[in-house]
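Hello forum,

I keep getting stuck at the same step: I have a sequence, I want structure tokens, and every attempt I make locally crashes halfway through. Rather than fight my setup again tonight, could one of you with a working pipeline run this one for me? It's a single chain of 286 residues.
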Amino acid sequence: MTVTPLGIPRRLLEFTLDGEPVRAPEGSTILDACRAAGKDVPTLCEGDTLTPKNACRVCVVEVEGSRTLVPACSRRAEPGMQVRTGTERARHSRKVVLELLASSVDLSTTPRVAEWLKEYEAKPDRFGPDAARVNEEPKVDNDLYVRDYDKCILCYKCVDACGDQWQNTFAISVAGRGFDARIAVEHDAPLTDSACVYCGNCIEVCPTGALSFKSEFDMRAAGAWDESRQTRTTTVCAYCGVGCNLTLHVQDNEIVKVTSPHDNPVTHGNLCIKGRFGYQHVQNRD
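Reply #2:
Ran it on my machine without issues. Output:
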């Protein structure tokens, strides 16, 4: 039986969304309201367990009276607000952002990007073969996870998850400026020499696959990774008494990675090193 927490009731705000009157709980973002109304507004940097960073600007919408387009992921809904999500101006902005991202980094493992490129008729190739690309080799310096910054869009979600929003380890930060800006650890050292505690919460929030399980990285390289053949089973971690929920991703009767439900009141998607990576004993056949 699913138990829904009652919480404190929130006052409903009334405003207009694409010409239709809608209601949203006080404190909701425009993106929350769009999703509740069944409107598909694309976003890359938004995460349901983190404070919005407004980094990718793919979710911009038009608000009457606003001089510029506003990010739907962070702009709070206001009474009487008039929001338009599919105007020519908003769609053109999303198209250009998608083109700039896809021309500079590898978005091949980013969910739904191929669909959005087609929907907005984005053509990353129009910048020509001389367009600057990140072109970094994956950093494989441990047995747990891989950092492939050629896929990084600098959404800062890993920095926030490692910092004061969740883990408080502060092993990850941004180094460099402009096009040379990179996600890095202290002095760009190997991960094994950093303050990283290998909780993997940065992997949980990464939207592009720039951070991934070593098991997933190896299987993708071998052409064996197939999410259509994977099952997901949520269980309780057996390492301690906290009661963290684990979602086991299983392919061909082998656990290939572990995540955690974001709506779980204990973990909110976060785990420790044992919960996220300590599953090998389960499938030891010796």
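Residues 149 and 210 are 5 Å apart (CA to CA). If your local run keeps crashing, start a new thread with the error log.
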